[in-house]
Amino acid sequence: MELEKLRYPIGQFTAQDSYSPAENKTNIQIISALPSKFINLLGSWNDEKLNTPYRPNGWTVRQVVHHVADSHINAYTRTRLALTEDNPTIKPYDETAWAELPDAKTAQVELSLQLIRYVHLRWVLLLNSMNDADLARTYFHPGSQETVRMDTMIAHYAWHSEHHYQHAFQLGARNNWQ
Q1: C-alpha distances in angstroms, 143 versus 73, 94, 146?
Q2: Which whole number is the average pLDDT over 6-20?
Q3: pTM above 0.85?
Q4: Mean of the pLDDT values across residues 138-149?
Q5: DinB-like domain: which residues (predicted)?
Q6: Nearest-CA neighbor of 29 among 167, 175, 157, 178?
Q7: To which H or E segment does residue 146 belong?
Q8: What is the pLDDT of residue 178?
Q9: How far apart are CA 155 and CA 150, in angstroms?
Q10: Which residues, including other chains, have CB under 8 Å from residue 63's CB and lie 6 or more apart?
Q11: How many CA atoms within 13 Å lie on the side-chain side of 85?
């Protein structure tokens, strides 16, 4: 299988200029569904499966799940900052270095699945409460030098949710683990 398809199983994220209310609702639903999808998929996987890279020279499924927890905790915090400050500058982090930390390589996946579950409960509650003015609020990302609107951030994390879920799902399908 082509490496690019393994790396980006649903393609790369492309931001739109704007998002309709229906698109925002769909994106929030995708974010909301991720914890259950991960728990249902990975609940019976053993350490051998969880320690399998989803692609050559890629992260293990364990690292992917811990990465999603780290990333979505940061996204939840960025959402709160954008809603309470005027275009705050967020703190980027080195996700590759975080994925190489000992906890990301060895901790039980259940720890991050529960983090994702509870962070998403709070985050989705907040996202669903946002009005048009809230969706237009922004933060500045110094790593990309971009100002990010909340509706774009929601779309990005809907993509991010499905992107990483598909890493695990497609690995399982390729290996007949479902």
Answers
A1: 18, 10, 8
A2: 96
A3: yes
A4: 97
A5: 35-167
A6: 157
A7: strand 146-149
A8: 78
A9: 9
A10: 99, 104, 105
A11: 12
Residue listed under structure tokens 């996987």 = 45
Residue 48 lies in a domain: yes
Cβ–Cβ under 8 Å, residues 138 and 149 = yes
Specify if 4 maps to a domain: no
Is the four-CA dihedral 22, 84, 92, 108 of positive or negative sign? Answer: negative
pLDDT digits (tens, 9 = 90+) for 103-134: 999 999 999 999 999 999 999 999 999 999 99
CB distance 115 to 166 below 8 Å: no
Tally of structural domains, the chain: 1
**89 secondary structure, DSSP code:** B
Asked if residues 115 and 69 have their Cβ atoms less than 8 Å apart, the reply is: yes
- Whether 134 maps to a domain, the answer reads yes
What amino acid occupies position 71? S
Average pLDDT over residues 34-46: 97
CATH number at residue 101: 1.20.120.450
Please list, in sequence order, all residues whose beta carbon lies within 8 angstroms of the beta carbon of residue 133, skipping any fewer than 6 positions away.
none
Please check whether residue 7 lies inside any domain of the structure. Answer: no
- Write out the residue range of the structural domain in which residue 169 sits: 27-174
